[in-house]
Specification:
The complex is a heterodimer of chains A (363) and B (281). Chain A has 363 residues and is mostly helical. Chain A has helices at 2-29, 40-63, 73-92, 105-109, 125-149, 154-173, 199-225, 227-237, 239-244, 249-275, 285-298, 303-323, 328-342, and strands at 185-186, 190-191, 194-195, 277-278. Chain A has one domain (2-357): Orthogonal Bundle (ABC transporter involved in vitamin B12 uptake, BtuC). Chain A has 13 helices and four strands. In chain A, strands 1-4 form a two-stranded antiparallel sheet. In chain A, strands 2-3 form a two-stranded antiparallel sheet. The longest helix of chain A has 28 residues, at 2-29. Chain A starts with a helix and ends in a 21-residue tail after the last helix. Chain B is of the alpha/beta class and 281 residues long. Chain B contains eleven helices and ten strands. The longest helix of chain B is centred in the C-terminal third of the chain and has 14 residues, at 181-194. Chain B is globular and about 55 Å long. Chain B starts with a helix and ends in a 6-residue tail after the last helix. Residues 1-8 and 277-281 of chain B have low confidence and may be disordered. The chains are: A mainly alpha (363), B alpha/beta (281). The interface between A and B is medium-sized, with 31 and 36 residues.
């Protein structure tokens, strides 16, 4: 009977995303003067929000269901973004400002004569696609291997994830790293031969983000509905008890943390072509904290709650930073405090949402 | 209690010259000598507090044993050692003749066949009674295995029949957090049995139970022994008496006395440190 409820919420979720995709696509095709026309700026903005929603699902998977409060997930997002950015840089070819066919502009500017070894292979989209998942996944695996094996938990784990993203930010700021330093990677032209500035490609990226969100949601949902999902909740609620039942807690954590990082990397890779730039600012600790706030507001421990939080808060942010730019962080802080006090389960905890993953007490 | 004096690591153990020669974790349990658990010369020191002091404790296969002792006697620490939560400073702990418990972590020990019920009922409150039993059931414990695990008709029936045994059939789909204290105790005992362990460590099973529930618990624990070894830690003397099992009294981290409940109650040492006035009745 619980499975039925969970399937219902999945079905509702998918229909909602599909409806969004279809509506926006249709309204985008209307002539520009039409009052219902959705402009290309809005399409890209929504596409960006959808990638944030994927990131929020990744965070919710490890925080809401496994109890790992990661304050460094933006790092995995940014790494996926950088991998995509490197591919897009290579696609520029000799159309850069300096017209150098072998080197990206910033390397010419730094008087580099040859491509660093870690840029090799990023001419190929297949290789890039692999790296988008592998690089964040590998970092999460190595990080998690040491952290979970040593049983680093709770706030200590959160602090070291925060330190990790901060360290990466400092590293990527350095020109010597070969990732464009402070300016990052930008001035992209093509993706798979399609012009990134064309309206159709922007719409395509928006749809791809929506499809990716559905795919990620289904993947996470299938995990959470399996026995593995129950083990995850058991670890979240009583880690020691789970160990005494014979489960290798550190392996479950490692597997899901790595998967979550790969999902975050995918989100980053979809994000970069839509915003047109990736720079070390994406590693900023504040970004990771913001993701956690989206999930908390939307409803930790429900996948669709995380999506609602990401979309809702980012929409509010866009509106707020337009209307009252200085007040946004205060508004976000206030919202966070209010939600924590009044709605501990977030927006998804409101009565008219179906329960998912967690059950209410009583019959 | 001069901790430093009591606590000495032997400089050389002639039977353990080459640590690497001692077989690593062996998963076939060998109980052919009829002893399920060997704890020998165990000492644990927590920052100067000697929780366990040169303890020797054996449990036979299929035996039901009660462990009593005043607060701080080391009962819970003993369980922590057996289940891998605490590492002793000295001594050895073997499960059967071949499994060295001191080289395994909690999950390996649980998989080898030692189950534990905690003092404070610890069930997974956000999961249903059914899910709690499902997770405890013997079977795959790997990440991939649990992801692919499917419920067969047979396993569902097994869970349902366990729910019946522990009187929770009605609450099967209810979250464990909504159960009463006594029901949680029962659920945890049920989870323990689902693990199908060879050795059960049961910490204060009767806490928070009514008299009828206690009688049922006694009956259940007695029925479990025989096939499995059961060690029960309990404060309630009436409950211990009802179990009709040999009793071991711990005091300041060592065994003070062993014997039947009647022997124990007439033992002058025990009367002095523990039973006090209760033994005069």
């Amino acid at each position: 009977m619980r499975a039925g409820k969970s399937r219902l919420s999945t079905l509702l979720f998918i229909s909602a995303v599909v409806t969004l995709l279809v509506t926006v696509t249709t309204l985008n095709q209307l002539p520009a003067g039409h009052e219902l026309h959705v402009g290309n700026f809005m399409v890209s903005l929504l596409g960006k929000y959808l990638t944030y929603a994927i990131l929020a699902v990744a965070v919710d998977l490890v925080w809401g269901y496994l109890g790992i409060l990661s304050l460094g997930h933006a790092a995995f997002f940014a790494l996926g973004g950088y991998a995509m950015g490197m591919y897009l840089m290579r696609q520029i070819g000799d159309r850069g400002v300096y017209g150098n066919p072998d080197l990206p502009d910033f390397m010419v500017f730094l008087n580099w004569t040859e491509l660093p070894w870690y840029w090799m292979g990023f001419d190929s989209f297949a290789f890039t696609a692999l790296m988008i998942l592998l690089v964040p996944g590998l970092l999460a695996f190595v990080f998690g291997w040491f952290a979970f094996r040593s049983r680093v938990n709770g706030v200590y784990l959160s602090i070291i994830t925060q330190a990790m993203t901060y360290a990466l930010m400092l590293a990527f700021f350095r020109n010597e790293m070969g990732f464009g330093g402070n300016n990052g990677l930008t001035d992209f032209k093509d993706l798979l031969g399609f012009d990134l500035r064309s309206d159709d490609v922007r719409l395509g990226l928006f749809i791809a983000s929506g499809v990716a969100l559905i795919f990620v949601y289904l993947l996470c949902d299938s995990i959470l509905r399996s026995r593995l999902g129950k083990v995850a909740i058991a670890i979240r609620d009583a880690e020691d008890r789970t160990r005494f039942l014979g489960y290798r807690v550190e392996r479950v954590k490692l597997a899901l943390f790595t998967l979550s990082a790969m999902i975050a990397g995918l989100a980053g890779a979809l994000y970069v072509p839509q915003v047109g730039i990736i720079n070390p600012g994406e590693f900023s600790p504040l970004n990771s904290i913001e993701v956690v706030v989206w999930v908390a507001i939307g409803g930790r421990g429900t996948l669709y709650g995380a999506v609602i939080g990401a979309l809702g808060v980012n929409y509010a942010k866009t509106w707020f930073t337009g209307a009252y730019p200085e007040a946004w962080l205060f508004a976000l802080g206030l919202l966070f405090v209010l939600v924590t006090l009044a709605l501990p389960k977030g927006i998804a905890g409101l009565r008219w949402f179906p329960s998912q993953g967690k059950k209410e007490g009583g019959t | 209690m001069s901790a430093a004096g009591n606590y000495q690591k032997p400089l050389i153990r002639r039977d353990r010259t080459f640590e690497f020669l001692i077989p690593q974790y062996v998963d076939d349990l060998d109980l052919s000598h009829g002893t399920a658990l060997y704890l020998e010369d165990i000492s644990v020191n927590f920052d100067g507090f000697q929780a366990i002091n040169n303890l020797n404790f054996y449990v036979d296969t299929g035996e039901l044993r009660c462990l009593i002792g005043p607060n701080g006697a080391g009962k819970t620490t003993l369980m922590d050692i057996v289940t891998g939560k605490t590492r002793p400073d000295t001594g050895s702990a073997w499960f059967g003749q071949r499994i060295n418990l001191l080289r395994m972590d909690e999950a390996q020990i649980a998989q080898a066949g030692i189950g534990r019920k905690f003092q404070k009922p610890s069930v997974f409150e956000n999961l249903s009674v059914f899910d709690n039993l499902e997770l405890s059931m013997t079977g795959t414990r790997t990440v991939w295995g649990t992801f692919r695990a499917r419920m067969s008709r047979e396993t569902v029936e097994r869970i349902e029949s366990m729910a019946e045994t522990i009187n929770l059939s009605e609450q099967l789909n209810q979250s464990a957090g909504s159960l009463s204290h006594g029901q949680k105790q029962w659920l945890e005992i049920g989870m323990l049995i689902m693990q199908n362990p060879i050795l059960l460590l049961v910490d204060e099973p009767a806490a928070g139970m009514t008299h009828q529930e206690m009688d049922k618990t006694v009956e259940l624990l007695r029925s479990l022994s025989g096939e499995r070894a059961v060690v029960v830690v309990e404060h309630d003397m009436e409950f211990v008496r009802a179990l009709q099992a040999p009793v071991t009294v711990l005091h300041q981290g060592s065994v003070l006395a062993e014997g039947s409940m009647d022997d124990i109650q007439s033992n002058s040492d025990v009367m002095r440190v523990y039973l006090g006035t209760e033994s005069t009745t």
